Amino acid sequence: MWRSSSIPLSALRPYSYYGISRLISKRNVGLQWQHAFTAPASKKPTLPERTLLYHAGTGRTVFIGSLKLTTFFLFAYSAFLVAPAQFFHPESPIWVPLAVIIGGAIPMLVVAYATAPFVTYIHLRIPFYARRSKEDLMRFVDKVPRTTEIDLTTIGQFGWPHVYRMPLAELRKARYTLSAANVKRVLPPSSVNANRPWWNRGLPTKFHVGVKPVGRRGPTPWQKVWDQLPNV
What we know:
Elements: H1 12-37, E1 50-55, H2 58-87, H3 96-114, E2 119-125, H4 134-142, E3 149-155, E4 161-167, E5 171-173, E6 183-185, E7 206-207, H5 221-227
Antiparallel strand pairs: 1-2, 2-3, 3-4, 5-6, 6-7
Helix pairs in contact: 2-3, 4-5
């Protein structure tokens, strides 16, 4: 008849613990070798591909948009209400309706030229490796390639936004006497503006972008890009 072993259970504990520890140590060594020869996974980007670099501010954007709309409605009121009333008035001189139309158009034209085109947003299309953190973005804009695409969002005459996409190589710093524009777009000869009709304005070539001085925290990404723009 089979009899149970007389070895106490306490004598098996050291052997079982030793065996399990050897298995665990072998597994850890295997995992270490596996991590050593396996390429690390790419870090998920925290920034979007179309990253915001510049915002003109809500107050300035609302003020410029309201000013453009106000001057447009002033011109429409003068041209379509006041001028016809003066034209059909029997005692009104013949030159009064024309003067009313010109007087209503002058504020609209002055505001449209002085604020042409006012940039509200600037987005930069950055590659994947520059989207992982803000530090990677700052390293990218230190020497940003000239072929990088940039989006300039402006306010139209009626207040709606217009987005213009272009390579960074087309932008230049500029100064104008009678305009607030400080950026000029140098279009290639094969652009839309080359063969456009006389009545078509084509693509805008003047932009106004606000540039603030460098603060205590150092330059912003847009300030670094601005410093790399050549002069006209």
